[in-house]
Write a structure and sequence with these properties.
alpha+beta, flat, 5-stranded antiparallel β-sheet, 3-stranded antiparallel β-sheet, Immunoglobulin-like
Length: about 140
């Protein structure tokens, strides 16, 4: 019985720790544009590979009173010159719904761009275009 209690306690502690460490990997605020709250997070495409490409994950939240289709373009720059552009990414969001990262196809990478490079002065990124169109439903 003591062993069962010990194992249960260990698993509960492990689960609590993993949830806490995941929560610390939150998203940073980009801002709100056309009623869409935009958050972002940089990470390695392959977490255990230091030279893996950097991946920008977005989280979009619909703050409109109705469902919308969001069309967004992401651009990466090296010393002000365009090095990557992801054009016309469409996402349908119900009222109050959030979509994020890879599960929603909101992860953007440029070949050869590492996580360390995203911190350099020569690198910048922005949402270069966004449009929001009300719809009746996302279904």
């Amino acid at each position: 019985m003591k062993r069962l209690v010990s194992v249960t306690f260990f698993l509960a502690a492990l689960l609590a720790f993993s949830n806490t460490s995941y929560a610390q990997r939150g998203f940073d605020e980009y801002g709100t544009e056309e009623g869409i709250r935009i958050q972002y997070r940089w990470a390695r495409h392959i977490p255990v590979a230091p030279e893996s490409n950097a991946a920008l994950s977005l989280r979009l939240t619909n703050e409109h009173p109705n469902p919308v289709i969001v069309t967004i373009t992401i651009s990466f720059y090296r010393e002000g010159k365009l090095m990557f552009e992801s054009r016309d990414n469409n996402y349908c969001l119900e009222v109050g719904q959030s979509l994020r990262g890879a599960p929603a196809n909101m992860r953007f990478m440029a070949e050869g761009l590492t996580l360390d490079m995203t911190q350099e002065d020569w690198f910048s990124w922005k949402i270069s275009a966004i449009s929001v169109k009300p719809v009746e439903s996302c279904k």
